[in-house]
Amino acid sequence: MTDxxxxxxxxxxxxKNFLEEIIEGDIKSGKHGGRVLTxxxxxxxxxxxxxxxxxxxxxxxxxxxxGGQTNLRFDDTNPVKEDVEYVDxxxxxxxxxxxxxxxxxxxxxxxxxxxxxxxxxISKGLAxxxxxxxxxxxxxRGTVTQPGKPSPWRDRSAEENLDIFARMRxxxxxxxxxxxxxxxxxxxxxxxxxxxxxxxxxxxxxxRTGDKWCIYPMYDYAHGQSDSIERITHSICTLEFxxxxxxxxxxxxxLDIFPSKQYEFARLNITYTVMSKRKxxxxxxxxxxxxxxxxxxxxxxxxxxxxxxxxxxxxxxxxVGVAKRDNVIDLSLLEFCIREDLNKRxxxxxxxxxxxxxxITNYPEGQTExxxxxxxxxxxxxxxxxxxFSRELYIEQEDFMENPPKKFxxxxxxxxxxxxxxxxxxxxxxxxxxxxxxxxxxxxxxPASKGGHSPDGRKVQGTMHWVSAQHAVPAEVRLxxxxxxxxxPNDVPDGEDWKTAINPESxxxxxxxxxxxxxxxxxxxxxxxxxxxxxCVDTDSTPEKMVFNRTVTLKDTWAKISxx
Length: 564
Prior knowledge:
Mean pLDDT: 94
Shape: elongated
Helix content: 25-40%
Low-confidence stretches: 1-12
Oligomer: single chain
Radius of gyration: 31 Å
Distance between the termini: 29 Å
């Protein structure tokens, strides 16, 4: 059984998720004049990851589906952690995923309005300046079962609060000496409603406003009002913000401003992956990975460098769907999506990762011929290419066994195999070094079997890829695997470093030999190395030294490993 419905025309109809039902209901009722405006509001304090990609696809996708628009709004309310570098990377990632925003806006655009609204709350007796330290405020909030204790400064007059708040803005007080808090309810069952902080003092240079401000709004204060200013119709957040919604509504109601509405969906969790910006930053700073765009990272720029396509990520986000409860998605689904996408679009090439030399003793010395190879059997329009063939070749070491078991259909002494696009060959002699290691195979070929077929119709079960030793191009190949060995990298014993789950085999660097056609490839070009997996030209690659990243294997090897 599938979850799809069948419409009256006999065509399958995908069931709507709860957000689509809400939006369609609002449009039908004429709410906001049928208008749909969403927003994607990242904080520019790091690089976006696959979890953000799901949110991007959801916010932009919903708006597109219902004829609406999406704003890209940077939640730049903490100058200490934010940087233009992150702003630029976020814009690049959103565009790369295939989306365009209606307006590029910043929370800092609204600093003056947010300040004036804070003044209005103070004037209404709904906000006050608190001189307690952060630790004192934390301790006075109480617990889930015990109410908090009111601040000694909770009953300051509106006039005094207005004066002090203006002086906070003017820079008269040091960092941490005062905060502005909402006056709500210190016994509220939702602890976020126990007089939350609206403003704190931070004397730091802001990437857009410079040194104009030294007080900055908290996320919970700036978020809903920014939505309201932009007249956002559907403010879509991840599930951890559901407890923030009463506060979101409280500010909008008390200020009597445009009633944006917040809706929550389950955030994306993937096996063998961490999504915490803090932990990802730790990996970068401690040089566990090369950088934010390390192909082992779940960042969008890391996935791009590894060879993922925006189409595969959008498909993944669609297949994950929209849920109301947190769940964990198997990384294999993401890998399946990229395999499925690259199978259709990636041209095939031959590359030998662990070379074993083959000499065809009856092939004329010094002769080279060009053989015709198909670029992509899934795409007739991809055409064909020429591959050089000569007396000396490289094959994969694993494609030869001196004493093979039954049903081993690759090369062995006396065994005949098919070379892809070329000829049938038979192994006649095995050459070893002084330590007994196999260093060379001597074979003969059947000249009548060109193209992989024999006139006498004999059947050959094994087909192997190869490269001409004379023409092959050496290339650095980076074999990336999962960064963690534990399906839940956060699941470590108390007191143990979460990084103990890092996979020591997550990167292997080898020198491979690739067919000469690959020397023409550009950075981020994607290929299937026949029988080996999907690979992408790395950003480190140069004409003098080709570098390829393994995007994904042809099959889910981890599924086999984990089942043992």
